[in-house]
Write a structure and sequence with these properties.
The protein is α/β, with parallel strands linked by helices. The protein folds into four domains: about 150 residues, no CATH class; about 30 residues, no CATH class; about 200 residues, Ribonuclease Z/Hydroxyacylglutathione hydrolase-like (Metallo-beta-lactamase, Chain A), CATH 3.60.15; about 140 residues, Rossmann fold (3-Layer(aba) Sandwich), CATH 3.40.50.12650. It has 20 helices and 22 strands. Strands 10-11-12-13-14-22 form a six-stranded mixed β-sheet. The chain has a five-stranded mixed β-sheet with strand order 5-6-7-8-9, covered by helices on one side. A hairpin with a 5-residue loop joins strand 12 and strand 13. The N and C termini lie far apart (about 130 Å).
Length: about 650
Amino acid sequence: MDEEDFEYIPLMKKKKKNLVTEDKKKKEENTKKLSRNQKRDKNKAQNKVESTPSKSQGTTRQKRKTPKSKTPKRERKKYDGYCPACQMPFSALVIETPTWHASECIDNYKPESECSEGADCDCTIQSHFWRFSHKQLAEYRQRKTRADQIGSRTNKGSKDKTNTNTSNNNIPNSSNNSLSIKSKLNGAIPSQLSSTESCDNVVREKNLNEVLMNSMKKSASEPCIDLGATSKDFKSALVKNATDILMSSVNSKHVKEKESLPRTRKIITKDDKELQNVLGIENSGKGNQSTKPVRNCPFYKKIPETGFTVDAFCYGNVPGCKAYFLSHFHYDHYRGLTKKFSSPIYCSKVTGNLIKSRIGINPDIVHDLPMNTPCTVEGTEVLLLEANHCPGSVLFLFKTQQGRLILHTGDFRADPSMEEMKCLQNVRIHQLYLDTTYCDPKYAFPPQKLVIEFGVSLVDKIMTEKPKTLVVCGSYTIGKERIFTAIARRFDCKICVQRDKYKVLECLEDPDLSARLTLDANETFLHVLPMGKLNLQGLHEHRSKLRTDYNNVVAIEPTGWTYNDKMVSLDQIKPKGNKEIKIYGLPYSEHSSYLELKRFIQYIRPDQILPTVNNGNPATRRKMESIFESWMTEDKAENKPKQTKIGAWAK
């Protein structure tokens, strides 16, 4: 027998022994598992028996292991109370705060009709309250709050007597007058207080009668006042005071929300006095006291030596102003003008039609001045010139009694045709109020006529390739009319506008344009929509409302802000959108470009230039001053004054 066989046999015996031990271990583990499972089943059965409630014992709720909860989502903040103007519950607000919503309602709330549900209206949709008024609901809530107040007073009992005894120490002892006041408090509340009382949850702890009583407790020396029929004026003033107190209590609960509202103008620091003069802001606070800035009319809105202001309606009654001039009907220029305005307004015929029809200004105070015809206003000669901006926009050329010429451009698009105006030839312009919207070298967009011709040719090319195309032009309330009128003349078609735009265009008194207007969207392929609807969703919704089946939609967005300084030719314009809807942004502007401003100033060559746009930043003002000086010196004209600093104008 070899050595290899002798070594092999013992190895086999060892492996057999190992296999036997492994089998035993597996059997033991299986028995242990079975015993564990049996115990587990018994425990489950016992738990079920114990968890079932018996008739004698109360129900015991089985405790469950709560799984690890994820981070809870932030819930939307819900507000209590109702809007004082539209009666909408504040709980329906999603983004706005109650203070924000109430301020918007006070300014813009114009319901169409009364809600048919009356006092039973329980709607929580915001658009419903914007569309319908809820006077009956406000009266119902008013009566309810009064009843709650009376019930709360009667339930107090003896506590009220002790409180009244202590409070009467500050009031003169006059039982008859005090009784007359208490008996007539409920009658002293007019219907207009329903808006404030509707916020019952917000000012729940405020008692209207207590507020009225406290408002009369000014001093112990004053006699007690009877709210009889002979003192109606005082009663109304007293109720107004109580209303202010109630509204202040509502606003005090939303101080943090009020601070988060956007501010229209920043508070100016003390170091920048020049900027305060430019913006027309004076801080009435002393020391480090934080007071609201008082907005006075800035100097660049005033015409010196005349007592006139231009586009200064948001500053209230300007001291010393004899006449208010309006350059055109754009909101940033007529802001603050309401139908209650009573001072004389001077403007063009078209602008006068717009403010009378759109705002409801009293026609007696609107004075329409003719174009290119000198007129005398308060001893000053005024001449209106075409501004090439929007319909009705004008330049004001003032000639003071001292013989100084002052030119105010308002908003304008400088054009070489202005150099042919005889009133601007061979004259010395002492002061120029200049529209500097695009006073930056990067805004060198092409002339207006080239952009209009490109827009017409673009539509012509698309219509020849795809006849079933809907053409949409963007527009403001007034402005951008030259684009869609040029397209309408090329195709000799109608122009579909919305009813609001139709009323605006009627004020232009243009017979050719009026003959092309229509409200029927299915009568023409050329439509005019607001700029805000020139997006994929807005254009898709507009097309879906039409009976005519259009395969494609082409929208033209005419604005100078679409201009890119890398653009060399208009042919480089590429649309945005998809295969069916394409939006072309044309660099069409109704403000002067950088090069057009340069040519205009080098032609006018005024003694002083004052920018009326983007003049709030000191760095921007210094940049514009250097630009003006470079333009004036570039022509190398002799004996011409240099541009002075803008801050010197305010001194």
